[in-house]
Amino acid sequence: MFTIISYDIVEDKRRTKVMNLLKGYGTRVQYSVFECELTTQEFATIGKELRTIIDANTDSVRCYRLDADAVQRIAILGIGRVTTDPGYYLI
Length: 91
Description:
Elements: E1 2-8, H1 12-23, E2 26-30, E3 33-37, H2 40-53, E4 60-66, H3 68-72
Antiparallel strand pairs: 1-3, 1-4, 2-3
Helix pairs in contact: 1-2
């Protein structure tokens, strides 16, 4: 499912860890925002990993799971486009 993950992490070291984790799952579309196409299992895995990185008292991570209809209603002003998975991968 299409998922938008945004974060506000106070400490640089934790912020870098979160960014590196999310780079493995999606596309960075803004400084602290990623767009990902995630299975239910991947979403659960990311949640577990994020909980081990962040400080729940000072940091914030928000995950928005969007169905296909909601993705079609995304509006982007200025540069950029909604991230899509390619139809194929070149290995």
